[in-house]
Design brief:
Elements lengths: L5 H15 L3 E9 L2 E8 L3 E8 L3 E5 L11 H10 L3 E7 L5 E7 L3 E7 L5 E5 L5 E4 L3 E2 L4 E2 L20 H10 L4 H22 L16 H19 L6 E5 L2 E5 L10 E4 L3 H62 L1 H16 L4 H13 L8 E4 L5 E5 L2 E5 L5 H45 L19 E4 L5 E4 L3 H11 L5 E5 L7 E4 L7 H13 L2 H4 L4 E7 L4 E2 L14 E2 L4 E7 L2 E7 L3 E6 L1 H7 L3 E9 L1 H12 L7 H7 L5 E3 L1 H11 L1
């Protein structure tokens, strides 16, 4: 994957500054060891994700990456220090491959994104001291460690936006290389160095391999004009972001280039969007391969084990066959073997060494003695190696013929005993191998390859909490203080019903009756909805009292001397209570003005869809539980992870497996 050039970074930085200046910093994530994602809230736009990959890229992205369950240290520190801060500026440092993101909270902080070499992401305080780097590095000229003053990389090259003709001429005079290399090594890179020379060639002939000290004043002047013509477009913001493609070559660039005039071009509204499509697509294609490689490593472990176990079993079979055969050969050649044993023992009785005995037997074999023809060798311990009909036998003269044969038979018996254990081990390994292959297959089916996050045109009620009751009545609730305020001021009609959990921190809820008569079932379901979307959920309650009143009892006018915060209201008159409303929800896809995800009381969801998941207050983080829900209910890839997270209550959840087991049992 190509790294962003200095030109790319100049364009991206300018766009990011225009987009994110004044934006509020939200959470930060670290999907991989070298990618950090910072989330921003831009007034009037909403969520914007900024992807920063060390040494490669920085751009906004519509392709959310899967985050680890436990955030690493660096994004956690970013959350602690800069969450809630506002962006002051985003700029490129000296036309280098370094981006500075300056934000203000309790003090000024700077996030440095280094995109040269292997790159880095570094958080600085207002005195330019390093709070924490993503990667600690100690170089001869720079120490990237906590509590050290941050030093920018040594300034080099030219800034094509501001360079003068005289400065360019001086660069050529001091260089000892050809013209294309000189331009490339001075911050322009090979692509733009060759582009400048091609444009200059339209006016005067310039060979890119010409040594710089041989360039004429006219050639230098035309090279400078070509450079200014190209980069004045950047300076004036006249860019044409595009992805170019020809055969296997593909690139992303912010300008029309002569070098790519024969390439197929896809244009984009801004360079961030072009970079997102270019880089995210490449990252997405590798995600499945990386995860599959990890699973293959586990599978290979069992396959190697099975192979070794099978080889061991085969060795046991050969040992059994070979040992039994050798035992039989010993008995079938009893006299011959006995004769040579007697020769050895007799010689030992006359104080001959085994070495001397070996020489005597070797000589006898050479001279044609029949008894010596089976002799091969004798070691220093007196153990004979005999060759009978191409069968090698190891015979100990200290043992009898039956004892020597029994040695081989015992070896065969031992191998037989081990064969039983090997067969059991092979069966176990085969089961484990099948199990891991099955898990791999399931995991690969559920690999979460990032899909482009498309902003959906939500219905008015989807911007709130909502559900359709089993009686087909719409019930809406607030998501926060602002939408709680809207529930009463904008959506609560005179004939509706207002509900609120009898606890601090709850959603203002409205039953949109629209002429329907209020009934106990509707109140029960709405009460469960109001109870579940309250702080009772995050506190782990199983039930919660809920009260309901008529709209004319809900007032924004406080008592004398009191103050009402945004989203708070005064309830006057008698309150009707729904005691012990169940704190539990179901999530499924319903067909209400088109297919859409709905979270509501179990009976309401059951009435409108067959495939749903029941949730209860628990211990699993939203992202993790949302992935499980996505795999269970996603029809025709209708939903994204964000769609599910959006409808979940505040706090951790668990799937109510007991409920689903009971339902499964009831079917039978």
């Amino acid at each position: 994957m190509k790294s962003m050039s200095n030109v790319d970074i100049y364009t991206i930085s300018d766009e990011l500054n225009n987009l994110l200046k004044g934006a509020r910093v939200d959470k930060s994530f670290q999907p991989t060891k070298d990618i950090v994602v910072m989330r921003f809230h831009v007034p009037g736009t909403g969520r914007v994700d900024l992807v920063m990959q060390c040494g490669f890229r920085i751009h906004t992205s519509q392709y959310p990456l899967e985050n680890p369950t436990t955030p690493p240290t660096f994004p956690m520190l970013l959350r602690k220090r800069v969450k809630g801060a506002h962006v002051e500026s985003i700029k490129q440092h000296n036309f280098d491959r370094v981006v500075e993101i300056r934000v203000k909270k309790d003090q000024y902080y700077t996030i440095i994104v280094e995109l040269f070499d292997k790159g880095n992401i570094i958080l600085l305080d207002d005195e330019n001291n390093i709070i924490l780097p993503l990667k600690r590095k100690q170089l001869s000229s720079r120490d990237i460690s906590s509590k050290r003053e941050y030093a920018f990389p040594e300034e080099r090259g030219i800034n094509p936006i501001t360079v003068t003709e005289g400065e360019l001429k001086e660069v050529f005079e001091n260089a000892d290389s050809d013209v294309v290399r000189t331009l490339a090594m001075n911050g322009l890179g090979s692509l733009y160095a060759e582009e400048i020379i091609e444009r200059a060639n339209e006016k005067v002939e310039v060979d890119k391999n010409t040594p710089t000290n041989e360039l004429s004043d006219e050639q230098i002047s035309e090279i400078y004009k070509a450079l200014k013509e190209l980069f004045d477009n950047l300076k004036n913001g006249e860019i044409k972001p595009q992805i170019v493609k020809k055969d296997s070559k593909e690139d992303v660039i912010p300008l029309d280039l002569v070098k790519y005039q024969e390439f197929e071009k896809t244009y984009f509204t801004n360079f961030n969007e072009a970079c997102d499509e270019f880089y995210s697509k490449k990252v997405n294609t590798t995600i499945k391969d990386v995860k599959e490689a990890a699973w293959n490593k586990k599978v290979n472990k069992f396959e190697k084990r099975l192979k070794l176990q099978q080889e061991t079993l085969d060795n046991f079979a050969r040992t059994i066959e070979d040992s039994q055969h050798k035992g039989e050969v010993i008995y079938s050649n009893y006299p011959t073997i006995e004769n040579i044993i007697n020769v050895v023992n007799s010689a030992r009785g006359k104080d001959y060494s085994y070495s001397e005995i070996g020489k005597i037997l070797k000589k006898a074999k050479k001279e044609g003695m029949a008894e010596a023809q089976i002799y091969e060798s004798i070691d220093k311990m007196g153990v004979l190696t005999l060759d009978i009909d191409d069968t090698k036998l190891v015979i100990d003269p200290k043992l009898t013929i039956p004892e020597n044969a029994e040695t081989y038979y015992e070896k065969a018996k031992k191998a037989k005993r081990k064969t039983k254990g090997a067969l059991i081990a092979i069966e176990n390994t085969k089961k484990q191998l099948e199990d891991i292959k099955s898990k791999k297959e399931i995991a690969m089916e559920h690999v979460s390859v990032p899909r482009k996050r498309v902003k959906k045109n939500l219905k008015w009620y989807e911007k709130l909490r909502w559900f359709i009751s089993s009686d087909d009545v719409l019930v809406v609730g607030g998501r926060d203080a602002n939408s709680n305020e809207d529930i009463v001021k904008k959506y609560l009609d005179p004939n509706d019903i207002y509900l609120h959990a009898d606890i601090h921190g709850a959603s203002s809820t409205a039953i949109k009756l629209n002429g329907t008569e209020l009934n106990d079932n509707l109140l029960k379901e709405s009460g469960e909805f109001a109870a579940s979307f309250s702080s009772a959920w995050s506190m782990g309650f199983t039930t919660q009292d809920v009260f309901w009143v008529h709209p004319d009892q809900v007032s924004k006018t406080p008592e004398a001397g009191e103050f009402l915060a945004k989203g708070s209201f005064v309830i006057r008159g008698h309150r009707n209570y729904i005691r012990g409303a169940r704190v539990k929800l179901a999530v499924g896809i319903v067909d209400y003005e088109g297919k859409r995800i709905m979270a509501g009381p179990i009976e309401a969801v059951e009435a409108h869809c067959d495939n749903y998941v029941v949730l209860k207050p628990g211990f699993t983080k939203k992202e993790a539980i949302a992935k499980k829900i996505l795999h269970k209910i996603n029809e025709d890839d209708l939903l994204t992870l964000d769609d599910i997270i959006r409808v979940l209550p505040s706090g951790k959840c668990d799937i109510d497996e007991d409920y689903h087991q009971r339902k499964k049992y009831e079917k039978y």
